[in-house]
Design goal:
This protein has 676 residues and is mostly beta strands. Among the domains are: 180-451, Pectate Lyase C-like (3 Solenoid), CATH 2.160.20; 473-516; 522-608, Sandwich (Immunoglobulin-like); 618-676, no CATH class. It contains three helices and 60 strands. It has a 24-stranded parallel β-sheet that branches. It has a 15-stranded parallel β-sheet with strand order 3-5-8-11-13-15-17-20-23-26-29-32-35-38-41, with no helix packed on it. Strands 51, 53, 54, 56, 57 and 58 form a six-stranded mixed β-sheet that branches. Helix 2 links the parallel strand 42 and strand 43 (435-436). It is elongated, with a radius of gyration of 41 Å.
Length: 676
C-alpha cells in the first residue's frame, strides 16, 4: 500500500510526503565487488570502487550500466564508493520484460560516479535516488520516483516518457544541487509529460533545489536551466536557479497547464529568465498557471540579439495565468520583451524594473480585439527610457489596468504612440486610478526593491496594501533551512531556506552560501618502514597535512585502533609489540580534518618477532648417580636434564669421568697375602 499526502497551509506551501511500503524481511547485507545484474530482493552494499568492463551487459538492452537492478524490494548502498563505467553510465533500475506487474520499492543511495543513474520502465514504481554524487539522474516512465538530496552534474535531472508511450507520474525532486556545463545537455531539470494532445497530469513536485547552469555556447531556443514540456499540474517552489552561461531560466511550453511556481529565484546571464511559448503547433499555449513571489532577473547589459535581451518572453501565453507579487528585474535594454497571449491573464502586485533605456514591455499579438483582455493592477512599472509599452499588432482592447504606478526615471512618462498617461487612459479606457510618481525603491542597484518611507506606493493599492510586489506589513518571517549541500570544489556550499509566511520583503533571511573545506587531508606513515621486523616497544609515526588543518591522526593495527587519536604534531603512538602475535601485521593511519574529511594512509606490513633467548638450567633437578667403573674403558657416566629444554649444552655438567677398578678377591693365607 502506498499513500502520498500534500498539505497546503496558509502563507506558504508545505509538502509532506508519507510512504508506506511492504516490509522486507531482515537479512544480511550482500557486499558487491564487481558490476552485475541484481535480480533478487535484498540489501546490497558496494564494498569497493568498481570499474565497468566494456563487455558488461552486452546481452541485454541496458548496455553500459555497471549495475542493473531488475527486482523489487532492493536497497543498494553505494557506501561512498566510486563506479566508473566504460560508457559513462553507472546504475539503472530497469524493467525490460514488459511485465504488467513490474516491481517496486527500490532505494539507491551513496553512489559516487561521473556517470548517470536512471529508473527505466513504465511498470516500475516507488524508486528513491538519494545522497548521490552522479553525472545525471533520469526517470523514464516510472511512477512515484523520489530524487532527494543529490549532487548532480551536467546530465541534470530528467522526468520523461523517453519518446515512448510512458508517463512518469508523481515524481518528487527535492533538495538537490544541480550544476551544468556541457554543450551536449540542453536542459538541467526537465519534466516531459507526453508527445500528443492532451498533455498528461503528472503532478510533479520540484522544491528546494539549487540549479546552476554554466553552459556558454550559443544555445537554441529550447536550451534552459529548467524546462516543463507538455506536463500539467507541476508544483515548482522554493528553488534557486542561476544561469551564469547563455541558457534560459524557466522555459514553459506545450500546454503545460495548472502549475504552481512560487518562491523561486531565476537569474540569467544573457537569455530570458522566463520564456513561455508553444513549441509544437499541435499543442495549446500554457494556461492557468500561478506565478507568485518569484524573482526573475536577467543580467545581460549589452544583448546582441533582442531575443537574448528579454527578461520575459511570453509570446505563447494561454489564458488564466496569474502573476502576483513577482519582481521582474532587467539589467539590459528590454524588460519583459514580447508579451502576447490569447487573453484573460492577470498581473497583480508585481514590480517591473528596467535598468536599461529601452521599452519596458512590448505588447504583441494578432489584430483580434479583446475581450478577454489581460489585466494589470497594483503593479509598479519603473524604467529609464523610451516608453512603458511598445506594440506589435496589438489592440488596446487587449489591455485592462488600474491602480498601477508608472515611473520613468529618465524624464516624462510615455506610452509610445498612445502618448501620455492621460492619453493612454482616454484610448484604452483603463488606468483611471493609476499614478505617475517615483515609487522610492530603497536600493535597486544592490537588489533591495523594498519601499522607502513616504513612498506613494505604500498602502495605496486597490486592496489597501502596497502597490508592487514588496509589502511592508507586520508579517514576521519564519525561516527553516535545509541541510548544507555537499562542499564544492571551490570550497563553498549552499542551502535552501524557506519562509513559511512568505513575507514580502523577506526579513532576516539566513545565509544561503558559506565557506567550507572541500579538500581531504593527506597522510603517510613514516615509521616503522614497510616490510621490517619489530620487537619490544616501538613508536609509530606519520605526517599529515590539509588545506585548512588536520584535527588528528588515528593509527590502526590490523584495522583496529592502536592507541587514541593523536592531535599534536608530530603524530605518533607507542606500540608494545609483545601484545601482538609473532607474525605479519598491517599498520596504517587515518587523518581527519575539521570538516569531517578523512584519508587513510597506504598500508604497510611489519613482522613482529619477540622470541626470547633460552637460558639453560641444570640445577633444579639433580643429575643421576655415577655408573660403575667400566673394566675396559676405566670410565664411568651419568645423565643430567636441562629444566628449560633449550636444546643447547653450553653449561651442561660433566657426564663421563675416569675411574679406578678395585680387586675384590680375598687372600686365603698369610703366605698368599705375601705373595700378592
Amino acid at each position: 500500500m502506498n499513500k502520498r499526502f500534500l498539505f497546503l497551509l496558509a502563507g506558504g506551501l508545505v509538502i509532506t510526503t508519507i510512504f508506506f511500503h511492504r516490509r522486507v524481511s531482515a537479512q544480511s547485507v550482500i557486499d558487491l565487488t564487481e558490476c552485475q545484474h541484481i535480480t533478487t530482493s535484498g540489501s546490497y552494499r558496494l564494498a569497493k570502487d568498481v570499474s565497468d568492463p566494456s563487455t558488461i551487459n552486452t546481452n541485454t538492452p541496458s548496455i553500459g550500466y555497471c549495475f542493473s537492478i531488475r527486482a523489487g524490494n532492493v536497497t543498494f548502498d553505494g557506501n561512498g564508493k566510486t563506479i566508473t563505467s566504460s560508457t559513462g553510465e553507472a546504475l539503472e533500475v530497469a524493467d525490460f520484460s514488459n511485465d504488467q506487474n513490474g516491481f517496486s520499492n527500490v532505494t539507491v543511495s551513496n553512489v559516487v560516479s561521473s556517470g548517470g543513474v536512471r529508473a527505466f520502465g513504465e511498470n516500475i514504481n516507488h524508486v528513491t535516488f538519494q545522497n548521490l554524487q552522479v553525472g545525471g539522474i533520469a526517470d523514464y516512465g516510472s511512477d512515484d520516483v523520489i530524487i532527494h538530496n543529490n549532487t548532480v552534474g551536467e546530465g541534470g535531472i530528467l522526468v520523461s516518457d523517453d519518446d515512448r508511450e510512458w508517463t512518469a507520474f508523481r515524481a518528487i525532486i527535492t533538495g538537490n544541487t544541480v550544476a551544468g556545463g556541457s554543450t551536449d545537455v540542453k536542459v538541467l531539470v526537465e519534466v516531459v509529460g507526453g508527445q500528443v494532445h492532451p498533455c498528461p497530469e503528472l503532478d510533479t513536485i520540484i522544491t528546494g533545489n539549487t540549479i546552476t547552469d554554466t553552459r556558454n555556447d550559443p544555445p537554441p531556443e529550447a536550451t534552459a536551466a529548467v524546462r516543463v514540456r507538455c506536463a500539467t499540474h507541476t508544483t515548482f517552489t522554493n528553488n534557486t536557479i542561476h544561469s551564469t552561461g547563455s541558457t534560459l531560466g524557466l522555459y514553459l511550453r506545450d500546454e503545460s497547464d495548472d502549475g504552481t511556481y512560487e518562491n523561486n529565484t531565476f537569474v540569467t546571464n544573457s537569455r530570458p529568465a522566463l520564456w513561455i511559448a508553444a513549441g509544437n503547433p499541435d499543442k495549446t499555449y500554457p494556461s492557468r498557471n500561478t506565478f507568485r513571489n518569484n524573482v526573475f532577473q536577467t543580467n545581460d547589459t549589452t544583448p546582441t540579439d533582442p531575443d537574448n535581451g528579454y527578461l520575459y518572453y511570453g509570446l505563447g501565453i494561454g489564458s488564466g495565468n496569474i502573476f502576483s507579487y513577482n519582481t521582474f528585474i532587467s539589467k539590459n535594454y528590454w524588460l519583459l520583451g514580447h508579451v502576447g497571449s490569447t487573453g484573460g491573464n492577470t498581473y497583480n502586485h508585481n514590480t517591473f524594473y528596467a535598468f536599461g533605456s529601452g521599452i519596458l514591455q512590448n505588447l504583441t499579438g494578432d489584430t483580434t480585439a479583446g475581450p478577454p483582455s489581460d489585466t494589470y493592477t497594483n503593479n509598479i512599472f519603473n524604467y529609464s527610457g523610451a516608453s512603458v509599452f511598445g506594440y506589435d499588432k496589438w489592440l488596446a482592447s487587449r489591455y485592462s489596468g488600474n491602480h498601477n504606478l508608472f515611473y520613468n526615471r529618465a524624464g516624462a512618462l510615455s506610452f509610445g504612440s498612445f502618448g501620455t498617461l492621460a492619453q493612454w487612459r482616454t484610448t484604452t479606457g483603463s488606468d483611471a486610478g493609476s499614478i505617475n510618481m517615483d515609487p522610492k525603491i530603497t536600493d535597486a542597484t544592490n537588489g533591495d526593491f523594498s519601499l522607502q518611507a513616504g513612498s506613494p506606493a505604500l498602502n495605496t493599492a486597490s486592496d489597501g496594501t502596497n502597490i508592487g510586489a514588496w509589502q511592508t506589513s507586520s508579517c514576521t518571517s519564519a525561516w527553516t533551512c535545509d541541510p548544507w549541500q555537499t562542499c564544492q570544489s571551490n570550497n563553498t556550499q549552499t542551502r535552501t531556506c524557506h519562509d513559511a509566511n512568505t513575507c514580502q520583503p523577506p526579513t532576516n533571511q539566513p545565509a544561503l552560501t558559506q565557506s567550507c573545506d572541500g579538500t581531504a587531508p593527506t597522510v603517510s606513515i613514516t615509521a616503522p618502514t614497510n616490510n621490517t621486523t619489530v620487537s619490544g616497544t616501538v613508536s609509530a609515526t606519520a605526517t599529515a597535512s590539509d588545506n585548512v588543518g588536520v584535527v588528528g591522526v588515528q593509527f590502526k593495527l590490523d584495522g583496529t585502533n592502536l592507541g587514541s587519536e593523536d592531535t599534536v604534531v608530530p603524530y605518533s603512538t607507542s606500540w608494545n609489540t609483545t601484545t601482538a602475535t609473532n607474525a605479519s601485521h598491517t599498520l596504517t593511519a587515518v587523518a581527519r580534518d575539521a570538516a569531517g574529511h578523512t584519508t587513510t594512509a597506504s598500508t604497510i606490513t611489519v613482522t613482529v618477532n619477540n622470541t626470547v633467548a633460552c637460558v639453560e638450567d641444570w640445577t633444579t633437578i639433580p643429575c643421576s648417580d655415577w655408573s660403575g667403573c667400566d673394566k675396559t674403558s676405566r670410565t664411568q657416566s651419568r645423565t643430567c636434564t636441562d629444566n628449560h629444554h633449550c636444546g643447547t649444552f653450553v653449561n651442561q655438567p660433566v657426564l663421563s669421568q675416569g675411574c679406578t677398578l678395585q680387586d675384590s678377591t680375598q687372600p686365603s693365607a698369610v703366605s698368599d697375602l705375601k705373595a700378592k
